[in-house]
Amino acid sequence: MKLPISLLVMATASALAQPGLLEKLPTLPDFDSHRITSSDPTGGNADWRMLEPGQTLVLADVKGPGCIVHFRDNITSHEAHHLQWHVLRMYWDGEKDPSVEVPVGDFFGVGFGFTERMNSALLCIDQRPGKLTDPAAFGAARNSYFPMPFRRSARITITNEGKQPSQHWYEVNYRSYRKAPGNEGYFHAQYRQATPPAEGPYTILEAQGRGALVGCVLSVKNNDGGWWGEGDEIVYIDGQHAIQGTGSEDYFCESYGLRAGCFPYFGVTLLEEPYTTAYRWHVPDPVAFRKSLRFQIEHGNGSPPFRSGNYYYSVAYWYQTEPHAPFPKLPGPQQRVTWLGK
């Protein structure tokens, strides 16, 4: 599968400075530019939208062909865990079931409903207000630069599953085309958790169709103590055992454990025992599949039969043809904060 050319548009200067990207800037584009915002319709400065408990806010509902190239949302809520109470969903071309269904905090690369500054090629968070593990911290702007092409329509929503209202300052930038570019997959993101995982490798993604894995965020609450990351990543492509890694820290492009810090294609956004969140973007190395993909990681001490009492939470990001395989049922709000009870 050929990834969208807009995937080359990156958020950081280090990514932008790669050979060839700067040279493309003077090329006159063959698309129309659009921006949707939460601006005050009266022209004043009340540039937000309120979202009551149980309600859904539509960030974008547009016709294609087109491609969303950036969106930002700043959630303000005094409710603890509001980043896990708010769920982001995206629908392409009128589909009934979403292609993206992820709690907002996890989608933007930090687990457990915490807020941390993040600077990567595809996701960025501008600041960390308050102390690191404050589940009620607010005031940070979350930015996504994943290209999200669509042919007929695109719909982005956020649902408040908490008990208090929230405010949202948002922006969605997209392009419209006179003719849809060929050979582009649809963006997908899926949340999973296991508290703790069953015996055997923890499954991050099972997909059917033709596509490419382009990223992963993994959050672990270390209940067992010691080093949890000996487990290898395992990838089955089109039914064949195609990739076997050498350890969890190796998959996240580090060695001898993990260290906090963000880079264009990998990093650790959260490292505050017992909480860890790490990410990897497969931009230079997308994992292509023609029929199916199963992406797993060993847990425990990395030796069969792979048992641990640790809690795993993950988001997989990929592009593929539609229709996609049914997603696992999203855990309910209280299930998403199981880490509080142990």
Give a concise summary.
This protein is mostly beta strands and 342 residues long.
Structural write-up:
The chain has 342 residues and is mainly beta. 6% of the residues lie in helices and 41% in strands. The chain has five helices and 23 strands. The strands form three sheets. Strands 3, 5, 6, 11, 13, 15, 18, 19, 20, 21 and 23 form an eleven-stranded mixed beta sheet that branches. Strands 1, 2, 4, 7, 8, 9, 10 and 12 form an eight-stranded antiparallel beta sheet that branches. Strands 14-22-16-17 form a four-stranded antiparallel beta sheet, with no helix packed on it. A hairpin with a 3-residue loop joins strand 18 and strand 19 (266-272). The longest helix has 4 residues, at 13-16. The N and C termini lie far apart (43 Å). The model is unreliable at 1-19 (pLDDT under 50).
Mean pLDDT: 91
Described by strand count, sense and barrel closure, the largest sheet is: 11 strands, mixed
Helix content: under 10%
Structural class: mainly beta
Task: Give the CA-CA distance, first to last residue.
Answer: 43 Å
How many E strands? 23
Number of helices: 5
Q: What shape does the CA trace take?
A: globular
Rg over CA atoms: 19 Å
Strand content: 35-45%
Report low-confidence residues grouped into runs of 5 or more. Answer: 1-19
Element-by-element helix/strand order: HHEEEEHEEHEEEEEEEEEEEHEEEEEE
